[in-house]
Design a protein that fits this description.
The complex is a heterodimer of chains A (366) and B (511).
Chain A: H1 2-48, H2 53-65, H3 68-92, H4 101-116, H5 124-153, H6 157-177, H7 211-228, H8 230-240, H9 242-247, H10 252-279, H11 290-300, H12 308-329, H13 334-350, H14 362-365
Helix pairs in contact in A: 1-13, 2-3, 2-12, 3-7, 3-10, 3-11, 3-12, 4-5, 4-6, 4-10, 4-11, 5-6, 5-10, 7-8, 8-10, 11-12, 11-13
Chain B: E1 16-25, E2 28-38, E3 43-47, H1 54-62, E4 69-74, E5 77-78, H2 84-90, E6 92-95, H3 107-113, H4 124-136, H5 153-166, E7 171-175, H6 183-198, E8 203-208, H7 211-217, E9 220-225, E10 228-234, H8 240-248, E11 266-276, E12 283-292, E13 296-300, H9 307-314, E14 322-327, E15 330-331, H10 336-342, E16 344-347, H11 351-354, H12 362-366, E17 373-374, E18 377-378, H13 384-397, H14 414-425, E19 432-436, H15 444-459, E20 463-468, H16 471-477, E21 480-485, E22 488-494, H17 500-507
Parallel strand pairs in B: 3-8, 3-9, 6-7, 7-8, 13-20, 13-21, 16-19, 19-20
Antiparallel strand pairs in B: 1-2, 1-4, 4-5, 9-10, 11-12, 11-14, 14-15, 17-18, 21-22
Helix pairs in contact in B: 5-6, 8-17, 14-15
The chains are: A mainly alpha (366), B alpha/beta (511).
Chain lengths: 366, 511
Amino acid sequence: MALAESLSGGGARSTLLRAGLARRAEAVVIPLLALLAGLAVFGLFLLTQGKSPVDFFALVWKGAYGSAFSWQNTLSRAAPLLLSALCVALPARLGLVVIGGEGAIVLGGVAAGALAGPLAGAPAIVGLPLLAAAAMVVGGVWIGASGALRHLRGVNETIASLLLSYIAIALMNQLVEGPLRDPASLNKPSTAPLADQLRVGNMPGMDVHWGLAFGIAACVLSWVLIERTTWGFAARIAGGNLRAAEVQGLPVGRLIVGFTALGGAFAGLAGFFEVTAIHGSANASLAAGYGYTGILIAFLARQNTLAIIPVAILLAGFDASSGLVQRRMQLPDATVQVLQGLVFMAILMSETLYGRLRLFAAGKGA
Amino acid sequence: MKVIGQTPGPDAALAVETLGMTMRFGNFTALEDVSIRVAAGSFHALLGENGAGKSTLVKCIMGFYHATSGQLLVGGREARIADPRDARALGLGMVYQHFTLVPSLTVAENLVISRLDTPGVIDWRAERRALDAFMAAMPFRVPLDQQVSRLAAGEKQKLEILKQLYLGSRFLILDEPTSVLTPDEADEVLGHVRGLCAAGEVSVLMITHKFREVTAFADEVSVLRRGRLVGQGRVAELSHARMAAMMIGAEKEYVPAARKGSPGAPVLELSGIRATDRSGLKQIAIDSLTVRAGEIAGIAGISGNGQMELMEVLTGQRATSAGEIRVEGAPYRASRAEAQALAVRYLPEEPLKNACAPRMSVIDNIAFRSFDRKDGRAAFWLSPRSMKAQGTDLIDAFRVKAAVPDGPIAALSGGNVQRAVLARELTGAVRLLIISNPCFGLDFAAVAEIRARIVAARNAGAAVLLMSEDLDEVMELSDRILVMSEGRIDYEVAANEASLAEIGHHMGGHA
C-alpha cells in the first residue's frame, strides 16, 4: 500500500516534470523550426535565381563564424542588434508591439554627436557617460512617447512608433545637413568628428568594441528586471491581462510608459555606440536598419531577453557575411533582406502553432 | 380561423409551437418539458431570470441546439431543424441582442449581402428596384443609401427587423431587442413590431426582462424558471406582481447562511456617484450606499442594469463625473496603495477574464495581491521561493485542484479558478470585500464552498458588497438587500423583512 502510494506519487511528480519540460521545449523547438523553414524557403528562392543554396549557406558560415576575423565582424554587428531587440522585447512584456527602435537609434546617435562638440575638451570618464546618458534620454523619450500616446490617447503603439521613426530619420537629416553640419564634411553631411578621447575603443584582446559587453549586460539586466523584480512582475500582470492589473490597482500607465521608455533608452544607447565606436560622427549611416532587424530578433527570441543574445549573434552573422556572399555569388545586397523577411514571416506564422503540436501536449491533459 | 395542418400563405405569419421540449447537457437539464404555443400573428413574450432556459429554448427552435426530446411544430406541421439554415428556409428568423450589421456598408448593401443566394456579381439596378418596392410595402422604413454606422441604435434595430422580413422570415425571435436602445427608441421599435403582428405579417417571440414592455406590447407571456415552464397566460389578465412571482418562484423559506455578530461601523460609503454606462446612453446614479463592517449588503438586479459599471467604478476602471467613494472615512480612488492600506479586496465576475492573467501560472496568479510587499514594506526584489511556498499552501488550504501549480491558470476549471482567486483575495485581514456574480457558471459543490467562504469573511468582520444576478444567492447571503434597476438603487430592505414579490417588482423596473 505504502509502496503503491509512493509509486503513484513519483508518477505524478514525473508527469509534472514532463509537463514543465514540454512547455520549455515548445518555446525552443517552434522558433527553431520556423527558422529552418524560413531558411528552406530562402533556399528555394536561391534556386529560382540559379544559385546553389549549399554554396550560399557555406559562404554565410565562412563569412560569419569561419575565422577569428569573421567572428569579430559578427560580434561588432551584434552590439546594436542586442540593444535594438530590447526596444521590442521590453514593451512586449506589457503586450505592446513597438517597431520604431530605428528612430531611437538614429536620434540617440544624433544626440551623442551633437553633445560631443561642447564636450570636446572633457576627459573620457566625464564625457562618455554624459554622451551615453544624452543618447538614452532622447531614445527613451522618443519610444516612451509611443507608450504615453497608447495609454493616454489609445493610439496604436505599433503605428505610432513606426511613424515616429520616420520623423526621427527626417529630423536627423535636417540636423546633420543643417545646424549640426560640420562644414568639412563634403560628400556625406555629418556632425563634427568626435574628439579622440570620446571614441569608444575595443575590448581587450579582440577587435570588438565595448558595445557588445554593454548589449549583453543590458539583456541580462532586462531579464533580471522582468523575472526577478516586483516591477517586472507587475508588467507581466499588465501584459497578461490589463483588466486584472487594473483591478489589482497596479499603475498601468506608469508601467507602460516606463517599459517603452527603457526600451527606447537601450536603442538610444545603440546609437551612442554606433557614433562613438564605429562612425566617429553622427550621419545618415545611423539609419542602417538595425532597429528593424531588432524586431526580427526579438520575435525569434520569443521576447525573452536572454534568448536575444544568441539570436542577435546569429542574425549579426547573416549581416556580416553579406559582403562575402555578394562578391562570391554575384547576389545583390538585398538578398539578405529577402532572407530576413522570409524568416520573419515564418516566425509570425509559427505563433499559431503554440499549444497545437501533439509532441508538447503532455502538460495539457495533466 | 386556420385549420391545423393547413399550409400558410407565403406572406402570412407562422404559428410555432414547442411540445415537451427538453434539453440536457450531460447531467444538467437546461430545459425540461417546455410547451409554448405562439399563435400566428401574435406577440408572445418569454420572461425569466438569467439561466432560466430562455436562450436554450430559442436555440433549440433555431437549430443551434438539437433538443434531447420534444417536438417543434411550424405552421402546424412537425419540423425537423438540423441547423440554422433549415430554420431560415422554414421562415424562422432571429434578431440578436447585439447588431449583426456591417457598419461600413449602406442599408441596401447590408440587406443584399444578408441573403444566402447573393450572386457573385450583383446587378445593383435590379436589386435597388426590388429593395425600393420592398421598403414601400413596409410599415416603417430605414433610408436605403445611409451608411449603417451613421444610423442611431433604434434605426439599426429597425433595420435588423426589416432584414428578417426581407429574408422572408414569418416568425421572429427577438432576444432582448431593447437592451441597447433608449426607452423612446424601444417604444418606437416595439410599436412597429406590434403593428407587423397585428397586420398578420409575422409572429414574434420576444425574450425580455422588462415587465413594462410585456404589458405594453405583448399579447401573451410564458415564464421560465430553472428550465421549466412555470406560468403562461394572456398579458391582459396578468399583473406585474403576478409575473414577478412566477419568474422568481413561490415564496419559500430561505435559510440564511449561518452568521454571527451584528453590523459595525460603516466601511464603504458612496455618495452622489454619477458615471456613464457602457453604451454611453444611460447614467449610473448611486445617491447613497453604505456597507458596514460585519454585514453583507446584496445588490439584486437583472443583468445590464448598471451592476457591471458600478463594479468598474469601485475598482477604479470607470471614471466618475461626480460623487465620492470613501472607505473607512477616507476618500478612495482604488489605487494599489489604498487597497493595500485599507485591505480592500475584489472578486470580479468571470474571474479568468477579469481577475487573472490566463497564461501566467496558478502560483503567480495567487501572488498578485502580495508580490510587492515583504514584511509590511514595499519590496523591489521578487521572491519566487516565498511566492511558491505561499501559493502551494493556499492551493491546499482553498482546495484548488491544480495538477500543475506552475502551469497556466487557464488550464483550470471555472470552479478552481474562482477558488484560486478567493485564496488570493481572502488571505490576510480583509476590511472590505467587493464581489460580483461569484458563482456564475460553477457547479454545485464549488458554489456551496465559495458562498461559505464569503459568509466566513463577513463573520470575521469584513464589510461585504455582493452584486449578483442570482436572486437566490442574494437572499441566502445578504444581511441587507438592495435592488438596482436602470443604473439606480431604488429599493432597500433588511433581509429578514424581504419579500420576493416586492423585490421582483422592483427588479422589473418602472413597476
